[in-house]
């Protein structure tokens, strides 16, 4: 299952690159606390957006684990970027609650800005070491719990870079009790 409707919101999974989601209003960055370019998904987003993104973000840094801030998308195809700091697994505690905060805060921030569509990467499961299986469960459970509070968002996409990560999320989506 790679698509599911929860109330008014379509939740979908795709395998691909978060910087190439040109039908989406806001993409989420798995950022570092300083909102600097960094590696992984953050590096890809900053490269695609151009230098203006880091410049705009500088005054908003540092952010804390679980926090989300919004910027414009610069040269990305998306008008906005939401930057979330995921927990470093086993270091920022409780990691599960902090990871859930990322998804919840990003969704609420996008909804406050009256955006209709949002795309997430798998936050914290790269350099920050969060195991993909529990991370997928937290991401999808948090989305399910927050959907009834959303007024504007109609599409939530999760973009998985790796095929195996896609399969893990796909299985969890199939297990979500709607
Ligand atoms: N599109 C979608 N997903 C991607 C892409 C992409 N272009 N590139 C990587 N991924 P990570 P974290 C996946 O390490 O664990 C950075 O250096 C990747 O396969 O980007 O939250 C920051 O500056 C993985 O599943 O984020 C921070 O210091 C997922 O994105 C730190 O890493 C997250 O991997 C954040 O670590």
From TrEMBL:
Top-level taxonomic group: Bacteria
Domain (Macro): residue spans on this chain: 1-177
Identification of the protein by name: Macro domain-containing protein
SUPFAM superfamilies in UniProt: Macro domain-like (SSF52949)
InterPro entries on file: Macro_dom (IPR002589), Macro_dom-like (IPR043472)
Lineage, broadest ranks: Bacteria, Pseudomonadati, Bacteroidota, Cytophagia, Cytophagales
Organism from which the protein derives: Cyclobacterium jeungdonense
Pfam families: Macro
